[in-house]
């Protein structure tokens, strides 16, 4: 019988959906790889409560606790060795967030860490190592409740900021947050260097990329992204679900998310966006693997 594989579990509790991924470490310690064993995404939609009422209401709180109990069972069934759980924007802002996090730990033993936008970006960066080169680019990460912008130059992050706008927390173009975004970008980007490339992460840009079926691997032109956005906007949410097979919780947020990517790209005059199709959970997996291999 072979040696037992080390198993890892990453739980990502976003403002729109919650996810668990379980992976195993394969290969030698000096050249490890990760094999996905299990992945579940559940439309918990915490942001629907938090961004409208300032708290996670009773019905959704109960779903949250049940979901974490399910995740706990999966961790036990797969005999996971290392686990981490992060919660983002909606959990940061919910008035009753701390008491729910405490209840989760009490009922399941899972310690959920609520992280800020800066840490979220740093963890996601771990999964972007293969895509970051010496070129300058702006990394746009659109979540349900917040958007993280990160400017990279010469292979290093030079500026980073989280903005209160997302696919669930929708803002109009004349909202002050867009003025804040434009000011921040103009402060950190020098026009003399010309247009800057964009890199996009988040479930919505991944789906937009798949729908656009671009010719170039990992790359989507701004015009193609706009055309895909307009195509979706011309459909009812029901048609997006039935004709395009989108999940209900994707169908109603994908256009607002596209508007954020396009809005930032327009400000930066970005002609294209790189879509590596990785996110927070992928960075968490790398973090867990590093921890496991040091043990």
UniProtKB/TrEMBL annotation:
GO terms for molecular function: pyrophosphatase activity. It comes from the Bacteria. Transmembrane segments: none annotated. SUPFAM superfamilies: Actin-like ATPase domain. It holds the Pfam family Ppx-GppA. Signal peptide: none annotated. Residues 43-291 form the Ppx/GppA phosphatase N-terminal domain. PANTHER family: EXOPOLYPHOSPHATASE, RETROGRADE REGULATION PROTEIN 2. This is Exopolyphosphatase. It comes from Persicobacter diffluens.
């Amino acid at each position: 019988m072979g040696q037992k594989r080390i198993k890892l579990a990453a739980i990502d509790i976003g403002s729109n959906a919650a996810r668990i991924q379980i992976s195993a470490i394969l290969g030698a310690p000096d050249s490890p790889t990760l094999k996905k064993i299990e992945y579940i995404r559940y439309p918990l939609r915490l942001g629907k409560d938090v961004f409208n009422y300032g708290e996670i209401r009773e019905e959704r709180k109960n779903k949250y606790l049940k979901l974490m109990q399910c995740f706990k069972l999966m961790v036990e069934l797969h005999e996971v060795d290392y686990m981490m759980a992060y919660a983002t924007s909606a959990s940061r802002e919910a008035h009753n967030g701390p008491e729910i996090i405490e209840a989760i730990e009490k009922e399941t033993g899972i310690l959920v860490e609520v992280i800020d936008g800066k840490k979220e970006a740093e963890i996601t960066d771990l999964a972007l190592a293969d895509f970051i080169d010496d070129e300058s680019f702006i990394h746009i990460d659109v979540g349900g409740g917040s958007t993280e912008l990160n400017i990279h130059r010469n292979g290093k992050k030079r500026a980073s900021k989280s903005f209160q706008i997302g696919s669930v927390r929708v803002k109009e173009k004349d909202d002050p947050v867009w003025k804040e975004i434009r000011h921040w970008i103009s402060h950190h980007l020098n026009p003399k260097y010309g247009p800057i490339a964009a890199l996009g992460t988040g479930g919505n840009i991944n789906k937009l990329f798949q729908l656009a079926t671009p010719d170039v691997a990992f790359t989507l032109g701004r015009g193609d992204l706009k055309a895909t956005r307009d195509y979706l906007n011309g459909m009812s949410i029901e048609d997006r679900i039935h004709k395009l097979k989108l999940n209900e919780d994707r169908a109603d947020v994908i256009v607002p998310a596209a508007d954020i990517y396009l809005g930032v790209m327009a400000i930066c005059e970005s002609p294209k966006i790189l879509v590596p199709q990785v996110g927070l959970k992928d960075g968490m997996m790398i973090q867990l693997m590093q921890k496991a291999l040091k043990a």
